[in-house]
Amino acid sequence: MAKCSKCGSKAVIKVPYARMNLCERHFIEYFEGRVAATIERYGLLKEGDSVLVAVSGGKDSVALLSALAVVASELRLKVMPLHMHLGLGVYSDESLRVVKEVSRKLGMNTFILSLKGVVGAAIPELSAKSSRPPCAVCGLVKRYVLNAAAIEWGVDAVATGHHIDDLAPYALKNLLLGDMEAALKLAPVTAGEEGYLARRVRPLYEVTERECLTYAIVKGLPFVKTSCPNVFLGGMDALIRKFLYELDLRHPGVKLRFMRSLAKIAAKSLASQARVQTELTRCRYCGLPSRSEVCGFCRLTERALGSPAGPKVREALRSIRVSSR
Ligand SMILES: [Zn+2]
Ligand SMILES: [Zn+2]
């Protein structure tokens, strides 16, 4: 059994690109330090910021919340966890149970939003009635509600638990397909606009999926072990994932260098990010960002439920008294 490179006790993980084996204690220190360093390196959050954290109950979001709780005390951040109950049967019920347990463990107050409650229908119903695949509906709804909550509650940023193994395959895929704009959106931070579009940050940008899993386990954090019943990786996505995984095994750190250069390009093209945003307009119904006259969420809900739910969702969120200061 390998020994910890720092203290010589039993190692629980090998971190190839850092050329280290680490024990439980030193890995926890390493992981939390890495999240803090990512926040600093890319200027994700500044002292005193309020940050809305999307917590699904999976290992990644749970690891994010726990690491942020540690960083928060140093940076005096106001961490506001938010969980959406999506109405996906036992999967959603189990997720909610886990999120409540994690929140208790970390001493945090998590906002629970039921989709059925705020929208009037859960994912399966929205998917069936709009004849759109559940994953597409789920992604759209989550992005919309998260942004709307951030706007209504006046938070400084929204943090999501995407790690390098979520982001790198999509970045590479977009580059291969020639969609630079989509690739640049996978940067550690995307700019927001006051009262309209929330600033989005990804504090797990430089950690791997395996590190999130190990961190959640050694920290003794509960997390949902099954994956979403609807998840499906298309042929190309699966191939790119496998390629990146094998490439990084043979050349440790190459994935990280790739994502760091992407972040650099994204930061340089901040001007072009502004340009991209001016291509967005305000939805006729809800006033939130949209590529056409009606935003994707209002279009979806109008089709599925007969009327656009955007304004109703914003009002429901506004009525929840939240202090972001
Ligand atoms: Zn050690
Ligand atoms: Zn809308």
Report on this model:
The chain is α/β, with parallel strands linked by helices and 325 residues long. Helix 5 (123-130) crosses helix 13, helix 6 (134-153) packs across helix 14 (310-319) and helix 7 (164-176) crosses helix 11 (254-268). Helix content is 54%, strand content 10%. A hairpin with a 4-residue loop joins strand 1 (13-15) and strand 2 (20-22). It has a single domain, classed as HUPs (Rossmann fold, 3-Layer(aba) Sandwich). It is globular and about 65 Å long. 41% of the residues are buried. The longest helix is centred in the middle third of the chain and has 20 residues, at 134-153. The model has no long low-confidence stretch (mean pLDDT 91). The strands form three sheets. The chain has a six-stranded mixed sheet with strand order 5-4-3-6-8-7, with helices on both faces. The chain has a two-stranded antiparallel sheet with strand order 1-2. It has 14 helices and ten strands. The structure holds zinc ion (2 copies).
